From TrEMBL:
This is U1-type domain-containing protein. It is found in: Nucleus. SUPFAM superfamilies: beta-beta-alpha zinc fingers (SSF57667). Residues 77-111 form the U1-type domain. Residues 158-199 are annotated as: Disordered. Residues 169-181 have a biased composition (Basic and acidic residues). Gene3D superfamilies: Classic Zinc Finger. InterPro entries: Matrin/U1-like-C_Znf_C2H2, Snu23, Znf_C2H2_jaz, Znf_C2H2_sf. Signal peptide: none annotated. GO terms for cellular component: spliceosomal complex; U4/U6 x U5 tri-snRNP complex. Keywords: DNA-binding, Metal-binding, Nucleus, Zinc, Zinc-finger. PANTHER family: ZINC FINGER MATRIN-TYPE PROTEIN 2 (PTHR45986). GO terms for molecular function: DNA binding; zinc ion binding.
Length: 199
């Protein structure tokens, strides 16, 4: 080999030791990543499922017409808009299914698990329900009393109406008897009437 051929060798030369070191580092990183994946991450702690403290509005848009253009934001298009999940649901049943569903609850930060009730909580709940029943009874009693008062008022109105009719009848009878007395007096005095030919 001549020196001229030696310099004309334009093929790329590789540093084997460098690339072996890089390959070993990459293999080590992959092994570390696999070990991290195998180690269980502590699960995300979510709140327990709880009752809604607001009323779901299903009737506000009922029977209303809305003009929708291509520039209308998705929250104002037809259907029910969920601002938590940023989605539109077309009817009320699916909207209720959505807000009670896993995806929506997860976006709210709640798991689908319910808190286990203790005996004291159950007893308190029974007491609250009992009080509500008693209040309902009172409300019912109030309704019943209102109904009775209305009936009494109607009876009183009927009674007054009858009284008025009776007074009117008495007045008419008095007027009739008075007119009979006047006609008798007129006949005694010789007046027979105002130009009538009847006797």
């Amino acid at each position: 080999m001549t020196s001229k051929e030696k310099y004309e060798d334009h093929r790329r030369k590789w540093d084997r030791d460098e690339y072996e070191r890089l390959a070993a580092e990459r293999i080590q990183e992959e092994l570390d990543a696999q070990e991290k994946a195998k180690q269980k991450q502590p699960p995300v702690k979510r709140e327990l499922l709880r009752q809604r403290d607001y009323r779901v509005d299903l009737e506000s848009k009922l029977g209303k017409s809305v003009v929708i253009t291509k520039n209308t934001p998705s929250s104002q298009t037809g259907g029910y808009y969920c601002n938590v999940c940023d989605c539109v649901v077309k009817d009320s049943i699916n909207f209720l299914d959505h807000i009670n569903g896993k995806k929506h609850q997860r976006n709210l930060g709640m798991s689908m698990r319910v808190e286990r009730s203790s005996l004291d909580q159950v007893k308190k709940r029974f007491e609250v329900n009992k009080k509500k029943l008693e209040e309902k009874k009172k409300d019912y009693d109030i309704e019943q009393r209102m109904k009775e008062l209305r009936e009494e008022e109607e009876k009183l109105k009927e009674y007054r109406k009858e009284k008025r009719k009776e007074r009117k009848r008495k007045l008419e009878e008095d007027n009739d008897s008075k007119s009979q007395q006047d006609s008798e007096l007129a006949s005694i005095m010789g007046f027979s009437g105002f130009g009538s030919s009847k006797k």
